[in-house]
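Record format v2
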Amino acid sequence: MKDLFANLYNKVLSFFHQAENKDRESAKDVACNRLKLVLMQDRTNLSPAIMDRMRQELIDLLSKYLELDKELLDLNFEQEDEQMALMLSIPVIRAKEEAEILALLEEEDNEKENNDEEEETSENEEDDESENDDSDDASEIADESEEDSEDAEDSETPVESDSENEDSEEDIEK
Amino acid sequence: MTGHVIVITSGKGGVGKTTTSANIGTALAKAGNKVVLIDTDIGLRNLDLLLGLENRIVYTIVDVVEERCKLKQALVKDKKNPNLSLLAAAQTRDKTSVSQEQLKDICDQLKKKYDFILVDCPAGIEQGFQNAVAGASEAIVVTTPEMSAVRDADRIIGLLEAKEEIESYKLLLNRVRPNLIESNDMMSVEDVVEILSAELIGVIPEDTGIITSTNKGEPIVNDETSLAGQAYRNVARRIMGEDVPFLDLTQPKGFMAKIKNLFTKLKGKV
């Protein structure tokens, strides 16, 4: 008897909820997401393939220092006056242990000693990164990341980080 | 005196540039300002229709630049409001009939005698747009909560940012449908503002009254009972520097919505 009522109740409920099915992405969200993506391409003139690569390389780079929720990464270009700004927002699950980071860094670069950054600076680097990027021409970044991927020198410039991060891709695979 | 020259632009066609020009112009004039509306959509003129002035046009902007008449002769006074004048576009010519310098010159002359010069821009980003923007120092970007209109608005904003003469631009969101926003089927005002990261100057609800007002050649701001008219009057007040809160467009809840709410609450308790 109780089951029957629960059943009936659920049926009535689902009838009234037909219109707003919360599991399904709403038309508004689809529009917002599609627009954000297409505007990013419009504003930078970068192809979706290049954007994907940049996004992936940024994830790889930051993943060395922080455990991130990659699904929720939000990358966007915004126009502020005459300056274009790269807005990057990724939920951080946790900061990695210093030892963990150092081990990873040591592994990927045995010769160089100058990459012993603390985990705090890795967070700052996220900001630095986006600031550096917006002053550069966006297409330049894409070019540089491909050209400079061979020669690793200081790990401080964003160009460099990009190149390191190709190595880190291999590390993760190992 | 130096009047404000404001270009009303959008990129995409059909989002309501001309309706917006006619209504803001009329509202500004009703508030006591001396206003000129310039239709720069040469070859596709419509502003005269929206104002109901189509039978009074003798000279157009092309006649002015080709010196067949004086600028003053080409200004058509509104039927009701002597503060409002229209400089009509030519219908039988194209956008190349007027140059950027010529339009700038016209605006410079007008702003000595008028408080507001509103330039109704044609759709697109080609010469018509470049001409319309040439004499302006402020811009209103009209868009609707649709993807294509927002994308085009973003493009226009990019072009406006690159223009040194344009000191500021603001966003006017037209044809907003609160019931669709409430059901998450349409982008909200906040969504569009966030995506374009631009300052808002007005939110105009979709209103069937716009159709009848266009048919009659009478801007909807003259209708005191219309919500869209109220929203346009508020835009005019903001242009005049007043701080006017945005209208609450959320509609009163219907019977079904109330029942739905009740069930949602019940669900929480079970």
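The CA atoms of residues 39 and 120 of chain B lie 5 Å apart.
Strands of chain B lie at 4-9, 35-39, 75-77, 84-87, 116-120, 138-143, 168-176, 200-205.
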